[in-house]
Design goal:
single chain; alpha/beta; Rossmann fold; six-stranded parallel sheet; 14 strands; globular; binds uridine-5'-diphosphate-xylopyranose; UDP-glucose 6-dehydrogenase; UDP-Glc/GDP-Man_DH_C_sf; UDP-Glc/GDP-Man_DH_N; oxidoreductase
Length: about 450
């Protein structure tokens, strides 16, 4: 099928390449010339395992190309919109500038019967508004949220857990579309086209949920709100563990055995960051308030507050470990990305901790297998070292803030001790073997652990 993908950032670039990899003829469109140039050469503009391979394969097969010219969307049967919806500068609400610009840019090229499939994370109610703008062209708007995780984006796109499609319904989501039966038929036809797009997943039996616009939009934000809540829940337990001498990792293992709870996303530490969870829970709170239901998700403010407190805690542990002051101490920060397998530093708790230590007068050296260049652009005042061992040399204290295998599995405490000057290690991700580090002479501090 001929597809266009508007927006070739994280979501869009992966989606375009993944759709080509399952046999579609795809054009990716973005206003950023540099991004298009790099994608056209088969180079991923960000770190994502597996993406360079499917980009190269798609381009070589002739099924995948990239352009800055929106007119090339003409003729595609489905137009995916995957542009960013960042947090507004002066409020918690989502900024819809890019979504609006993408739809406006696309309108002249839409043909009757086309589908416009929104994938961006938007405040509930957005799809209904956009549908009204698309309706005069004879195209149909659907909402098809994306649940991909960075680091696993290719797998999550090619083989998702579930597919969700919000379609026009009889409850008046599309103005001027005629009778109830018309909208139901239009919705069924739209869902059928998306089943064809995602044919390998559909054939495999992946749940394919067809619903209305509002539900589809809410599925996305509520999934992220739930995940953020799960992380802050365990971090709240870590705070209690810290004053009682309990161990939050054992607690998480024990409650995680209950299948109703589950162990995943119960990793206590310096908390969540990235381009999605923090901004999505804030935008959800802002939208709920606009809808007069702020109290329904008031707990998300607490989720956010607990999350941010964990960064303070990590800094406090380093300060305590160094005897009460970090001024002019050499501190090696292992990690900068908001999580492993990513070069993304958006709202990275890891970098935030590093910046705070620097602010306290420490000499901070940061290393990361993928995110140094991005981090350096944002915080040039810090000292960056590509080589892990080089970064560890002469450290008075070490803090692990991103649980890359390079630190978690491949760094032995004995080897670290041979490089560092001091023996203080703060495990901001509870990812090290505390007993092994202690046995090697380190003073080990975990998050929510004795
Ligand atoms: C998230 C959602 O998982 C994904 O479904 C959605 O589409 C986009 O947002 P992502 O931002 O890639 O994906 O990262 P995720 O793996 O969810 O991790 C988010 C943050 O939570 C990271 O900073 C991670 O370190 C942290 N985290 C995760 C914890 O602190 N503890 C955990 O147990 C799990």
């Amino acid at each position: 099928m001929r597809l266009s993908v508007i927006g070739c950032g994280y979501l869009g670039a992966v989606h375009a390449a993944a759709m080509a990899s399952i046999g579609h003829d795809v054009v990716g469109i973005d206003v950023d010339e540099r991004k298009i140039e790099s994608l056209s050469k088969g180079e991923a503009p960000f770190f994502e395992p597996g993406l360079p391979e499917i980009l190269a394969e798609g381009i070589a097969s002739g099924r995948l190309r990239f352009t800055t010219d929106m007119a090339e969307a003409r003729g595609a049967k489905v137009h995916f919109v995957g542009v960013g919806t960042p947090q507004q500068r002066d409020s918690y609400a989502a900024d819809l500038t890019y979504v609006n610009a993408a739809i406006d840019g696309l309108l002249p090229y839409l043909e009757p019967g086309d589908l416009v499939a929104g994938k961006s994370t938007v405040p509930v109610g957005t799809a209904a508004d956009l549908a009204e703008r698309v309706a005069p062209t004879g195209a149909t708007l659907v909402w098809n949220p994306e649940f991909l995780r960075e680091g696993f984006a290719v797998k999550d796109t090619v083989d998702p857990d579930r597919l969700v499609v919000g379609v026009p319904t009889s409850t008046g989501s599309v103005s001027g579309s005629g009778s109830t039966t018309d909208s139901v038929d239009e919705g069924e036809r739209a869902a059928q086209i998306l089943r064809e797009v995602y044919h390998p997943s559909v054939a495999k039996g992946t749940p394919f949920i067809v619903t209305d616009y509002a539900t589809a939009e809410l599925v996305k934000v509520s999934a992220n709100a739930f995940l953020a809540t799960k992380i802050s829940f365990i971090n709240a337990m870590a705070e209690i563990a810290e004053v009682t001498g309990a161990d939050v990792t054992t607690l998480a293992d024990a409650i995680g055995h209950d299948v109703r709870i589950g162990r995943r996303f119960l990793g206590a530490g310096i908390g969540f960051g990235g381009g999605c969870l923090p901004k999505d829970i804030r935008a959800f709170s802002a939208r709920a308030e606009e809808l007069g239901r702020g109290e329904s998700v008031a707990f998300l403010r607490e989720v956010d507050a607990i999350n941010l407190r964990r960064r303070d805690r990590a800094v406090d542990l380093v300060v305590a470990g160094l005897g009460g002051a970090v001024f002019k101490k050499n501190i090696t920060v292992l990690g900068a990305a908001f999580k492993p397998h990513s070069d993304d530093i958006r709202d990275s708790p890891a970098l935030d901790v590093a910046v705070r230590l620097h602010g306290l007068g420490a000499w901070v050296t940061i290393t990361d297998p993928a995110a140094i260049e991005n981090a350096q652009r944002l915080h040039p005042q810090l000292n960056y070292v590509a080589d892990r061992d080089e970064a560890l040399r002469g450290a008075d204290a070490v803090i692990v803030v991103t649980e890359w295998d390079e630190y978690r599995r491949e760094l032995s405490p004995e080897h670290a001790a041979s490089l560092a000057t001091g023996r203080v290690v703060v495990d901001g991700r509870n990812c090290l073997d505390a007993a092994a580090w202690r046995a090697a002479g380190w003073e080990y501090y975990g998050m929510g652990r004795p």
